[in-house]
Amino acid sequence: MIPRLSPHIPLAGLLDALRPAPTDAVGLFESAFADVAGTRHAIAFPYGRTALMCLLQAMGLEGRQIICPSYTCVVVPHAIEYSGNESVFVDVSEQSFLMDMDLAEQAVNDRTGALVATSLFGEPVNLDRLARFEERYPGVAIIQDCAHSFFCSHNGKPVHKHGVAAIYGLNFSKLLTSVFGGMITTDDDNLAKAIRALRVRTVSVAGMKKEILRRLYYVVALCALNPVMFGLTWRLSRLGILDRFVRYFDEFKIDMPADYLTGMGSFEAMIGIGQLKLYQDIVSHRRIIAGHYNHSLAGAKHITLPPDPEGATYSHYVVRTDDAARYLALALDAGIELGELVDYFVPDLPAYKRHISFGSGIGRRYVGRVVNLPVHRGVDAEVASRVAMIMQQ
Ligand SMILES: *Cc1c(COP(=O)(O)O)cnc(C)c1O
Between the chain's N and C termini, which has fewer beta carbons within 10 Å? Predict the structure, then answer.
């Protein structure tokens, strides 16, 4: 059975769980990440959300409003709240998964400290529009959420270099992984210094226990996502047995994982270094599979394809349907799991009901309707054609 996500690691990568990691692996991973990103600094964290929280604090923002998309991963507002600031939500623009920048301008006031621009699903944000926003509101810092984009570009310009800094998430579902983990990139020396100083004060160094647990998790997750094993994984997850591992939020709570302040471990960094070497392969594979979908689904009747801008990196290939459940069921019959990300509208979650939110709720229409077609290394042209046939039914 084909899973909806799979890290770009062959089964032989399991052997890495037995390899000793260099003691300075985290530093090496940071240097390698900065090289690939083309930035002066890369600073590692245990999660992308911890990275965002610390970034806001290192920027000296406190008690301020931070603008973020209504249609995004819920860990983003969690990090904003944990940083001591308040999230303000801005809806997507018509026919798009990305934040409406005209609405974002309406959300700005004296208390606004920053705007989180998200290249959701790997679709680059419009940097020209963002520059116009900055001209009008020079006091609002731009932070790029590149958890889905990983160095995507807009008109040839790298998105992650536009603004004060960019954050990344590196869990198994992301385009690049370090098992778990997060990263900040920036070209600002003073900000980098402040982030590192804050990290020393707030994030503890990973101990032996974390190193061992991460190795175990890596082995189990890699096996569970292997096509041979995945049928069993899928059945277990349907029974709720895996909820502890796969449920990443509680809609009633603003919270963080128990170990969100325990630093990235050497093992995770070692895996991350290996992934960076594959970066070009990973992105070209995803673009090729996205190309297959674009080609075979062009003109399909009941679905809307994602935009296909140059420079997109396709962390997800997301089509809009009128009923996601129908396609998910059809695909399961054919032995393929489709995804449903993002399947909520953050201002509608009980935890965020009282927060300020701009827009009429266009992003709400995507709940229950979006379907992620797999683009990972387990999908070749033949599987992509099967998926495309399902989506045409
Ligand atoms: C995954 C993700 C993050 C960071 O996630 P962590 O799980 O904290 O590493 C941030 N923003 C978006 C849009 C994401 O999908």
Answer: C
Top mutation candidate among 89, 148, 173 for ligand 1, by most atoms within 8 Å of CB:
148
Q: How far is the CA of 232 from the centre of ligand 1 (A)?
A: 27
Give the number of residues written for the chain: 393
Q: What is the mean pLDDT of residues 257-264?
A: 97
Reference 251, options 355, 172, 353; nearest CA is: 353
The b-or-e profile of 339-371 (16+ CB within 10 A means b, else e) is bbbbebbbbbbebbeebebbbeebbbebbebbb
Whole-number Å distance, alpha carbon 147 to ligand 1 midpoint, is: 5
Give residue 80's pLDDT band: very low, low, confident or very high (50, 70, 90).
very high
Residue 166 is given by DSSP the state: E
Q: Whose CA is nearest to atom 13 of ligand 1?
A: 73
User: Ligand 1, closest atom to CA 248?
Assistant: 7
C-alpha of residue 333 to centroid of ligand 1, in Å: 30
pLDDT tens track for 168-223:
999 999 999 999 999 999 999 999 999 999 999 999 999 999 999 999 999 999 99
Spell out which residues line ligand 1, taking CB within 6 angstroms: 47-49, 72-73, 75-76, 118, 145, 147-148, 169, 171, 182
Amino acid occupying residue 23: T
| DSSP bridge partners of 92 | 99
As beta bridge partners, residue 339 has 372
Is 309 a residue whose pLDDT tops 80?
yes
Residue 77 to residue 80: CA distance in whole angstroms: 5
Tokens of residue 119, six digits = 């290249």
Q: What are the structure tokens assigned to 249, written together? A: 């939020």
Q: What are phi and psi of 262, to 5 degrees?
A: -100, 120
The three-point CA angle 369-256-216 to 5° equals 90
Cis bond leading into 342, ω under 30°? yes
Q: How far does residue 318's CA lie from ligand 1's centre (Å)? A: 17
- Token code pair at residue 155: 């008109």
Mean pLDDT for all residues in the chain: 96
- 241's CB contacts (< 8 A; 6+ apart) are none
The residue whose CA has the least distance to atom 1 of ligand 1 is 169
